[in-house]
Structures are given as C-alpha cells and as structure tokens.
C-alpha cells in the first residue's frame, strides 16, 4: 500500500584528511558503542573540507556521492538538522558562505524537493510532549501499533533479504517495541529522571540514579495527559449544568484554551519549564539517547564501525547509559528519523493519496527547528540574498553531465 516502505540503511566509515580536534568524552562514547578507530584510520573513506580540489566529478569520492544525492532531487530528512546541514555542506560540498542568507539560498537550490526536520514536525505537527529523537520515534511506534491493532491505516516497514555472501557486511539486530526493563520492578521501580524525560539529556549521564527508560517516560506522559483530559471533561459536564450556560461556556473556552497552550497543543510543547538545558543539550540531541537498545525488528547496519571522525564532535557521554551491545549507530539514528517522517506524513495526508507535484508536508516544508525559538529557520532564497560563487560552480558541475 502507499504506507509501506522498503528500508535500507547504510553506514559509511569516513576519515577526514585534515587536522581536526576531538573531545576525549566523545571518543570514549564512540568506543563504548563499539566504534573501531583502528578500522577507521586504516580503511576509512578519505575526504577533505571546503571547495573541490581538481576534477572531483571523475573521482570515486564522498564528494561525488554527495553530488549524486543532489542530482537525485529527493527530499532531505534530518532531526534537529541545522548542525548536520552545516557539516554536510562544509565537508562534502564547499566552503561555508559568510552569511546565513547565502547558506539558506544555496540549500534551497541543492534540495529543491525540500528539507524536512522531524524535530520540528514532532513539536509543531504531532505536538509531542517531548521531541528528542528516541522519544519521538518510540511515540510514533506506539501510536502506529495502536492503529494496526484497530485495523486502521498504519505504517509498515519492510527490510531487504540479502544474499549470504553479503553477511560479512551486514549487522543484524533484533529490536523490540519496548525496552526489556520497561515492566520490571513493580512497586520498587526507579523514578524517572525529569531532566532526561524533558530533554533526552542528563548531566549525570550513566551515574544518574533515576530512570532514563524512554518507555516508562512515555507511560507517565500518557497517564498525565489522560488525567488532564478527564479533568477537562468533568469540568465541562459540571459547568454545562449550571444556571448560566452561556457564561459557563465562555469560561470553559477560556480555561480550555489556556490549558491547551500549557499542554503544548497551541504551540511547541514545554515539558518542564523549570529546566533550562545547556547549549550542549541540543547539540547532543542530534543523535538519539539510545541506551544501547535496538529500535526495529530486523533492522540492519552496513558495517559495524560506522561513524565519521567529525561526528565524534556531536557524540557526548551525556547521551545516557553506554551500550553493552554496541548498537548505537548513525544508521539507527537515520532509521528513526525516516520512521518519524513516514508516520507524520501518513497522519497528515489522511485519506488523500494524491500528493501531486507539491511538497510532502507543506507545513513542515523547508523548516528547520531552532532551539529555544517558536519559529523555524526557513530554507528559502531571499530576494535580498544571492547564491555563493562556490555553490554556483558546483551546480554547473552537477548538471554538466
């Protein structure tokens, strides 16, 4: 059906050929999740930053591959993707422009089918209570399972069956919907860490005595939402039977609007307003807080050791408990991001399967989430900005053939 997707996940081990800085904590995090630095330095695909050097279009390089992605004219989907776009542009495309207007103008021409940010979609479209990657993914997965159980329209993911001679290059993980520790503990269950619950990030990291269990966090959020819903319903019934129905209706409407706004249904959700995450919070959120647990049945990875060296700058030990099985991969992040996008698109399109030539989701088209802002960054070419010279040259190179 139109809601069935074939999912293929690829991980490429890259090696920057210029001097770069890594943080010890980031390196430790990658090692804890099974990253093989020996393999990266011995077999990593080399790349350089900035503008092209020589005729890049004729070489088998990451830059050539990135140019093919641009030629494909497909939508680009990210989660909290501003830093990712800066990284991709600088490392595989050209020197970064001097100003933001030029940068967004270039991006709008590089990806004419649109750029979508699932963090923005999670906050402003589905209006989830929290929007960090693993929370949004598991919330979508739960809601999709409910739709499936009720025989309603739902999302279906299919994976490839690869031949035996490719087994050396493929890493399979069995992934369940809920974490194994979800229902363990009973009356002695560990309380949820409110910091992690709100932001998917905790300064105590693995030493935090409270729970970072995403399933438990979603359980509590759903329970709180249901309690508030029942209270609103009870108030409505009680006021409906008062002597002044018109006045009661006006008061209820006003109160309900205020409560909706507080619940994030009239704006981006704010879970615990008493917390102000550090600047590193949103950077760390670019990759999920996986707690080392797989994320989908029959999910697969190409190559177990799979992070670019520069990606180490994004990886913080504050992502949560380290993986014992080494399942934290860029591929799992990509899978979750794609799953969220597919689920949101299914919800928003409803029964209308005629997508036409327009964008997938007009309300999310070319909008990047900005931390702490109620408005997104628009990926458009302004009337007052021009494309960069390096970008214009790259466009000529991309379409020369």
From TrEMBL:
UniProt-listed SUPFAM superfamilies: Ribonuclease H-like
C3H1-type zinc finger locations on the chain: 187-215
GO cellular component, one term: Cajal body
Spans traversing the lipid bilayer: none
C3H1-type domain sequence ranges: 187-215
Biased composition regions of type Basic and acidic residues, renumbered to the chain: 241-259
Record flagged with keyword Zinc-finger: yes
PROSITE patterns listed in its UniProt record: ZF_C3H1
Basic residues: compositionally biased ranges: 230-240
Name of the protein in its database record: TOE1 protein
Primary gene name: Toe1
């Amino acid at each position: 059906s139109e809601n069935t997707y074939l999912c293929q996940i690829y991980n490429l081990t890259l090696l920057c050929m210029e001097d770069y800085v890594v943080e010890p904590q980031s390196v430790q995090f990658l090692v804890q999740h099974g990253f093989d630095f020996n393999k990266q330095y011995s077999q990593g695909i080399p790349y350089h930053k900035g503008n092209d050097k020589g005729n890049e279009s004729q070489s088998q390089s990451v830059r050539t591959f990135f140019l093919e992605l641009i030629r494909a004219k497909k939508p680009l989907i990210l989660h909290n993707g501003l830093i990712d776009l800066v990284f991709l542009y600088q490392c595989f495309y050209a020197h970064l422009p001097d100003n933001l207007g030029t940068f967004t103008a270039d991006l709008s021409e590089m990806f004419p089918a649109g750029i979508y940010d699932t963090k923005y979609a999670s906050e402003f479209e589905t209006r989830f209570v929290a929007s960090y990657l693993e929370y949004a993914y598991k919330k979508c997965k739960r809601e999709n399972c409910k739709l499936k159980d009720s025989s309603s329209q739902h999302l279906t993911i299919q994976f490839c069956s690869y031949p035996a001679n490719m087994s050396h290059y493929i890493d399979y993980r069995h992934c369940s919907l809920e974490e194994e520790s979800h229902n363990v503990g009973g009356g002695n269950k560990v309380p949820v860490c409110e910091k992690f619950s709100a932001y998917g990030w905790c300064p105590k990291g693995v030493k935090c005595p409270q729970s970072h269990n995403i399933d438990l966090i979603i359980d509590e959020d759903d329970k709180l939402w249901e309690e508030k819903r029942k209270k609103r319903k009870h108030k409505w019934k009680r006021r409906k039977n008062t002597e002044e129905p018109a006045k009661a209706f006006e008061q209820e409407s006003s109160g309900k609007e205020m409560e909706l706004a507080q619940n994030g249904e009239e704006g981006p959700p704010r879970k615990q307003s008493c917390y102000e995450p550090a600047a590193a919070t949103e950077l760390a959120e670019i990759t999920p807080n996986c707690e080392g647990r797989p994320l989908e049945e029959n999910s697969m990875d190409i190559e177990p050791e799979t992070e670019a060296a520069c990606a180490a700058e994004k990886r913080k030990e504050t992502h949560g408990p380290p993986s014992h099985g080494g399942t934290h991969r860029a591929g799992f992040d990509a899978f979750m991001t794609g799953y969220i996008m597919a689920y949101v698109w299914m919800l928003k399109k409803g029964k209308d399967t005629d997508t036409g030539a327009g964008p997938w989701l007009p309300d999310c088209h070319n909008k990047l989430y900005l931390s702490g802002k109620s408005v997104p960054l628009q990926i458009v070419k302004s009337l007052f900005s021009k494309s960069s010279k390096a970008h214009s040259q790259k466009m000529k190179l991309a379409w020369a053939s």
